[in-house]
Amino acid sequence: MKWNRIPLGPLQTNAYVLVHEDQTCLVFDPGDEGEKLIEYITANGWTPLAVLLTHAHFDHIGAVDDIRKRWSIPVYVHKQEQHWLTDPMKNGSLLFMREAITVNEADVLLEGEQTLTIGAFSLQVFETPGHSPGSVSYYVEKAHAVVSGDVLFLGSIGRTDLPGGDYEQLLQSIHRHLLVLPEETVVLCGHGPETTIGAEMDTNPFLNRF
């Protein structure tokens, strides 16, 4: 099982494609440039099974409908942010981009921590609010990776000054759900390069002062 990072859009938001040995894949946070992402997946001969969102800010959802239309696959998002997909004020696009970015409603609403089985993939869903109320992280043990969205970054954490953000809640989410993972776990961040749980435990200044 392997993962691939594709930065997309003006904010270079990371979409990730997690690929199984059978060439099926999962698409995480397709934020923009749908045609570019479709061409990348098609060129590699992969077959997407689902789109999984870590949260519903505009820069993480912009190409959702492009991917869904191309492969007729379901979209997953946390229940607390189901209406953000269709509301440009809630997803922040009107505030930051001065244009409305919306996508159709999700097919599957996540609520509570659970294990998802999609094709040959098994993922643990952790509720990790703080950056946004419905932020989730997807831990894929067989890939030794966690898709954290905008919760945890290399040397930093997600911003909490947006509507629904909560600094203390974010730190609690990170400590309760992410830092308990094996230290070699790769953190697939929503922006910027990857890191590991161990590296952030040792060097992240936000976590070391909590």
From TrEMBL:
Q: Does Hydrolase appear among the keywords?
A: yes
- One Pfam family it belongs to: Lactamase_B
Q: Which cofactor does it need?
A: Zn(2+)
Q: Which UniProt keywords apply?
A: Hydrolase, Metal-binding, Zinc
Residue ranges of the Metallo-beta-lactamase domain?
12-191
InterPro entries given for it?
MBL_Glyoxalase_II, Metallo-B-lactamas, RibonucZ/Hydroxyglut_hydro
Domain of life per record: Bacteria
What SMART domains does the record point to? Lactamase_B (SM00849)
Q: Name one GO molecular function term.
A: hydrolase activity
Database matches in PANTHER family: HYDROXYACYLGLUTATHIONE HYDROLASE GLOC
Q: What is this protein called?
A: Glyoxylase, beta-lactamase superfamily II
